[in-house]
Amino acid sequence: MTSLLWLIPIAVSLGLVGLIAFFWSVRSGQYEDPQGNAARILYSEDKPIVDDEDE
Amino acid sequence: MAEIVFDDPGCPSGQSTPQDIARQETGNRLHREDLTPYVQTRANGDSSIDLMISGAHCAGCMAKIERETSALPGVKVARMNLSTMRLNVQWKGKNTTASSIVARLEELGYGAKPFNMELEPLENKNELNGLLKAMAVAGFATVNIMLFSVAVWAGVDMGPNTHTYMHWASAVIALPAVAYAGRPFFRSAWSALKNKTTNMDVPISLAVLLACTLSIYETVHGNPDTYFDAAVMLLFLLLIGRYLDARLRLKTGESAQRLAAMQASTAALISGNGDIVSVQASMIKPGDTLLIAAGERVPVDVEIISGTSEIDASIATGEALPVSSGPGDKLYSGMINLSAPLTAKALSISSDSFLSEISELVEAGEQKKGKFVRIADRAARAYVPVVHTLAALTFIGWLLVGAELRTASLNAIAVLIITCPCALGLAVPAVQIVASGRLFKKGVLIKSGDALERLAKVDTVVFDKTGTLTLGRMQLIGSADISPQDLESAAMLARGSRHPIARAVANAAGNGPMADNIKEIAAKGLSATIECKTVKFGSADFVGVKTTKSSHTESWLRVGKAKPVRFAFKDTPRQGAKDTVHDLLEGGYDVELLTGDKRAMASETAQALGIEKWQAEVSPKDKLARLETLESEGRFTLMIGDGINDAPALASAYASASPAGAADVSRAAADIILQGDKLSGLTTAVSVAKQAQRRVVENLSLAVIYNMIAVPLAIFGFVNPLFAALAMSGSSIIVTLNALRLNR
């Protein structure tokens, strides 16, 4: 059972990584246009939608 | 006269009240106007504008809009949000202007209106994101702690040390999670307690906090049972309900704003040195001098300085026929200037008695509505004292029969956890989300969950006439009695005018030529010379006829010295108005008509639609008084109206609805907004609200049944953490499934 001593913390921190990723996705506005994002994947073109070179 | 072409390709025929036609015309002219007040300059020197797009329905539209806008010279970013129908365009250089972007979009067949970013409900959005994060934290904690709990309950040969280790691990996850995810509940409970009331959040907060405190105590002392899993799961399930509720409010708020933004216009401001500049209507200050061109909507409330014109005042007074206005008269935002340009001074609300009276009445009505207690909170008010008494009795009871302090408090806390209104907190929002989602698809916008609850109790429906039951647009009747030549002569004059009666004649005659040198005399009529004869079309005294009594709106045509011909008109009912009224009467509702219009017009509409109770020439105050009378008779009223004169009645009625083309104050005061030009959404809304209410009651009963089984078990000490967790999630799933039945 001693393996639990380090396995549980590892499992929980992996979960925390997921939680942090979710926070990041909320902050970066990925839940602001669910309909548009669902559709956008169908219309990917050669040119990126946001032009990066000037950013 | 130009044909009106609606630029919404995918929309089932747009609205076409005179207000809308004029709005459409202003919309089409807008791209020739100056849009610079809406353009913002970004830090890197680029220009940026936010536009509200209408007529885009699918991903294809979005792709087309983005592709075509990006193709304009200098455009760097064109990104459309399909959920909020907003397009953000950023560009550099002088080759592209805001106007050319709008013009390009209109070429593609989409309507575009600049959107004022200041109006954005940023707070709601932050609240929603906060709830989403809280939900994620609670979900994360629930899943992880549940794993430990399963291990504790299934691990038969687990030693006491491992046991304690599992509890400590649970505590380490649960405590920060509760501190973070519980904030919305703790805050709301605290403010309720400060105001010496209770709400749903009081027992929730108490149960969560007590469960955590007890569990820490148990963990520290190495005892076998902890309730960390129950505490975080409770928060998780409740946060789902809260999140859905907040999302509903944000979504309807945004839709309501979209409607407002689509109607916002620019105004022609006459500056100190006589230049005319185009500014956003929202930027006009009281005292500014404005130029209102013929055919334009009045952008803000003004007082006429110079000029005389026919005004379509239906939005303020309910009168279907235009009124003649001159210097000193006051015009209200939303009215339409029909015939001649006017110079006017912007008014502030306080300087105008009509508007300040309206806003006071609206405020009073809203305060009354603010006192409405949602069914969930009403349930909580009855529920909280009972639960807390039960918990206290359990504690005392166990001590009396000689149990230890620990056992007594353990059982008392179990009662609190098991009775925590988890099902209540989820049951009501789940039903309301499903119901309003269903109505949203049908073009009915429900502003809040309590609007739905109020709507379900309605038994009396009160309609306004012009703009609600009728379109305020005249229609020629008895055209068979008029010879084609006479109709054509009248139409040759009428095609050059915006007066509703002239439009009705032009519509009846169809396309054709227009007479030269038409003279329009305000409040009298039109005259011109056709084939060397003077042709006059207008009021009885204008053409030289002795006034006759008539129930209809009428106009006369006289060609040269020939006998005058009578044209009679009636107001056009809104599509589906008759069916709606019929369905409501069938359904056992009382239907009434209250209008500011003349008696003759009101009785005609009432008869045509089969409404028996009606009152004409009522002032905003009279409408309010009638609603109050109905209320004192114990009726639950639903008021439907669109004008400024309806706003106080809308705010004070038990429930209220307004069509999308309504005045801003009315739309703001109404609980429901009917999109599209049909009234049929109303009957659907009422019946869905009733169904929803039935589901809510069912869900509450389920919660009661669950409590009747679980509470005795908790009181007598049979509830362990496993049972608490199962009962809680089980009841939540049952009420959610019951809510989803509404979708069928």
Can you tell me about this structure?
The complex is a heterodimer of chains A (55) and B (744). With 55 residues, chain A is mainly alpha-helical. Chain A contains 2 helices and no strands. Chain A is elongated and about 55 Å long. The model of chain A has no long low-confidence stretch (mean pLDDT 79). Chain B is 50% helix and 17% strand. In chain B, β3 and β4 form a beta hairpin. With 744 residues, chain B is α+β, with helices and mostly antiparallel strands. In chain B, the strands form 5 sheets. Chain B has a 7-stranded mixed beta sheet, sandwiched between helices. Chain B has a 6-stranded antiparallel beta sheet with strand order 7-6-8-14-9-12, with no helix packed on it. At the A-B interface, α1 and α2 of A face α2, β3, α4 and α5 of B.
List segments of chain A where confidence is low: pLDDT < 50 over at least 5 consecutive residues.
none
What structural class do helix, strand and pairing data of chain A support? mainly alpha
Biggest interface between protein chains, with counts per chain? A-B, 30 and 29 residues
Q: How much β-strand is present in the residues of chain B?
A: 15-25%
Instruction: Tell me the major beta sheet of chain B.
Output: 7 strands, mixed
**Could you give the count of β-strands of chain B?**
27
> Which structural category fits the helices and strands of chain B?
alpha+beta
Q: What is the radius of gyration of chain B?
A: 32 Å
Number of helical segments of chain B?
24
Rg on CA atoms of chain A, Å = 19 Å
H/E series of chain A, N to C? Answer: HH
Q: What sort of overall outline of chain B do the alpha carbons produce when their principal axes are compared? A: elongated
Q: N-to-C terminal Cα separation of chain A, in Å?
A: 54 Å
How much helix is in the residues of chain B? 40-55%
Q: What composes the largest sheet of chain A?
A: none
- Total helices of chain A: the number is 2
